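Changelog-adjacent note: as of this version, every example in the card shows the full chain rather than a window. The one below runs 190 residues end to end.
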Amino acid sequence: MSIKAGFAMCGSFCTFGKVIPEIRKLINSGIEVVPIMSFNAYSMDTRFGKAKDFICEIESITGKEIIHTIEGAEPIGPKKLIDALIIEPCTGNTLAKLAMGIADTPVTLGAKSNLRNGNPLIIAVSSNDALGNAGKNIGLLLNSKNTYFVPFKQDDPEKKPTSAVADFGRTKDTFLNALVGKQIQPVIIQ
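Full-length structure tokens:
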């Protein structure tokens, strides 16, 4: 029986080039990946690329259609479609919704649906406000049952002192540790 990971992407578009290879690493390790995207990640063209191109690449890598609607995300828990959910990149907006229990996007409903089964939720922060207003939400989530963080750091302390981003290369290790109830340490890295 293979391990099934939900892999949900939010609209931190500048990180997609670093995040998509992590999907491939999970699959190359024998982990089945169910792709999920927020409304914005699924529909917006940005200076970092066209939504259609990201969708095609992710669906090609995973061999699965991306869950991108509320209706598509709802069965994740009841049908036990995944063993854990990775949100990577996780924006400040999504952090706030998770911390407050708001489930109004495919990603946040997927998280709620996954957590109802007692499955791990793995968060890979990518926010210009992680050490500002979003910091309180990170604090709440660090103290939440079955919630784990990919280690993160400030990405540009001089120009963006409140910005932090996960070390995406540690996604697989964080995921595997979360499956056995362990948070890899340190959570905040230099």
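Structural remarks: Strands lie at 4-9, 32-37, 84-90, 121-127, 147-149, 152-154, 164-166.
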